[in-house]
Amino acid sequence: MAEASEWMLCPQCDLMTRLPAIPAGSKANCPRCHTNLVTRWHEPGKRPTGYVLAALFMLLLANLFPFVNMHVAGLSSEISLMAIPHVMVAEDYSSLATLFLLFVQAIPALCMLCIILLVNPIALPHGLRAALARILFRLRDWGMAEIFLAGVLVSFVKLMAYGDIGLGTSFWPWCLFCLLQLRAFQCVDRRWVWQRIAPMPMLPHAPQPGVSGLRQHLRSCPCCTAILPADQRHCPRCGARAHARRKHSLQWTLALLFTSLMLYIPANVMPIMITETLGTPYPSNIMGGVILLWSDGSYPVALVIFIASIMVPSLKMLAIGWLCWDASGRGRHDREKMHRIYEVVEFVGRWSMIDVFVIAVLSALVRMGRLMNVYPALGALLFALVVILTMIAAMAFDSRLTWDRTQDNRIKEPRVDGK
Asked: The whole model's pTM is what?
């Protein structure tokens, strides 16, 4: 019987590959869809530990001091990161405050703590280590610290027309936190982490390279990448329950897609922000904000908001619908093109939240008494729900369905690239 650690089913296209000896500083990619399978780092425990400790220290500094300030006509306003959710709660938008705390602060910090506990030889019960690994690899795509930073920069451009914008002491620690936590995620390999927790279960039978797992009556555990019999629902290694293909994947994806589409229309029509100047409220929706920025000469920022808040959600919903159409057997079976579309959909989906974070910064910072105030509106919450639902829809879609009707390429070795 072949060693289980030598084999891996691609999580994106289900191709069985035999992993070669991977030198340190290199990675192995799937020979069919080019998805990264394994990355072998120099000092895989010390490297992420250093990045995580530095990131957590920067996060602490970023929450201790003022973040940004604004001066308009002799009036001043200054905020810290923790003041942003307080303002939204005061304006009866606790839901937006909760999303901010989760996506920008809590999830990134929790993932950093999970990495520290998993990559270092800390005595923990097996069940707790497995639970931490599941939390890390399920939540890391929901951290949006860097997207919030992009929203802050867009807010600066919007506010420069009204007054002087200053950077607080905690702004630069936050920038460093965004970079360090991204680097920490890159340095953690899922397969290496799970190998430290528990060994691979034995293979049901000798696998055949270059053939999909489904044709060999095998499936990959979506949590720990263990190779299991196709009809085995429970993974003995990590405890996750799954099927050979995500159950009702297309139905769930389409249901979430139609729900997000129904919310997308009012999210674009209703105001997402109310600007009160000298006691007079001026509501604005997403497209109105783009037009205002364009008329003020802020062409790059208007373009960024238009792409992130109008084009990306619209094209993402169209792309998800197209993927479901193709996976149901009605497409032209161009697997590689559809897989590239799926990868783009997964990557860009989170960045539509940039407009929501712009509103969060503006509503917290622009507090100038009777002169000027900014408040969030219902459209912002609806738009945030659209982004979240489309992200869940992309996760619910099983990309392996795209490849199931493809003839196996009989490729025995994955490509190994130096890092």
From this structure: 0.87
